[in-house]
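TODO from last week: model DUF835 domain-containing protein.
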Amino acid sequence: MDGGVIADIATILIFSFLCSYLYYKLGNSVLSYVVLLFSSGVAILAISDIISLLYQNLPSVECIAGKFTAMGSLIAILGLLHLVSIFPRKSTRIHTILPSIYFISAIQIIYLFFTPHFLSCDPIMGGVRNHLWSIYALWAYSLLIFASLIPIYHMFTSITKIEKIATFYMVIGSLLVIGYLGLAQIVPMYYPEFEVFSAVHILPLMGVLFTVGIIKYGIYVMVPYKEVSKKSENLPEIRYGEINGIANIDAAYKIFRQEISEHLGMVITIRPPTIIKERYSIERTPIIWLTYFSNGYDLAIVPDRLHFEATYSIANFLDNGGEIVIMDGVEYIIKNYGRRFFAEFLEEIKTVKNDATIILAVNSLDCLEGLADNVIYTEGAIEAPRVIMVNNIKYIKKRDLLIITSKSRKHLEFEFEENPEIISISNEFNIDRFLFEGIGKIEDSPKKNVYIECMDYIMSMGEEKDVMNFIKDIIDIILFRNGYVFLRYTPRALESPAIKQFVEEIKL
């Protein structure tokens, strides 16, 4: 089989897989449809190239294949142009001229197929380019060069780190196309015998690099939605266009829920999204979950990528008309990555849209020093809490539990009526090893509820940051299973903002 035919078949298979993968991961998103448009053009281009290679001795067939090749090329170029219109942001406003470009291109495709003005079919010569072909070629090449230059422009004007990294892939694709055009159109003017490889394969390569630039780092196209109206009484008012720090996580979310019935909102949280949705009746608002245990949740981002995927997602959300962003886990981020890291993150958001309204939901006002423009302190009790600190096992002794303890197994088996699964720190793990490796045993356990009986021991023996991360990982695993996390009461834990941020109720 001819090498060109094999390459064309491989191209069709690759883009069929790419479309299927994106639809599976992103569903009915803008990116899925744009890549489908581009892939359709590539498929037409590749199939027509296969036909022309297999039927070179039939001029009429080769001519029809040539018309499909021209059409496929233009559709693929339109897909590329539409692809760069949604990335990195709408700063170039390409999307405003896309309808006109589509209209002009549609007219040219109609002329291409139903008139001989662009390309006519000769029974002996095959496809013959006529006097208007130069207009068609100029239009297609102009769009291709335009689509190629946009990523280069973004490379030098991007605000956030993730945009600069992702545009790097797109710039490689742009340079390949510009280099190809130079080889295909300029070099033959001076060296008539020079032959260059087919555009059938350079366009798909450009499309792959453009798509990789968008999806490699988990970039998400955020579509804002308004929620149904839900009013709550006696809630403090926030200041629009400023960073509002609210020293009560439950109250902060209730204020946010009230606001998103009139304004477009977005959530950045360290808590499982299912809990946020159920607790505050949030249905369509996008929720980004900062976690290392995504459990298949599509908008999950590892916390140390806050400056990358999370920043881009927020920028995209604000560019699409978003107005309010709420974020919890401030203590968690500052403890792990430092105050400067978080301050730079907030600065990047305000750089994207200076009048964006940001709500920081915290437990302690101390962590907001120098970060918030407006500070609100209010009270509120979480309904149906899932992370509970207990001082008496009567509240939990009948539950099906995984118990983390420093006591002996026999002692605990006597205290609990059910048959608990027990992880003993002193016997199976020392404290340092447990905080880093013990999470695997919890993840493998079938139990829905966890009781950390040895909170005082863990707090005294482990680093505060390690204990905080350990509890966060347990919450991510167990609450996603619709379970509960119980912590043994200890004043030491409540004195630590890093630990207290997770506690939703205390039962003494």
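Done. The radius of gyration is 29 Å.
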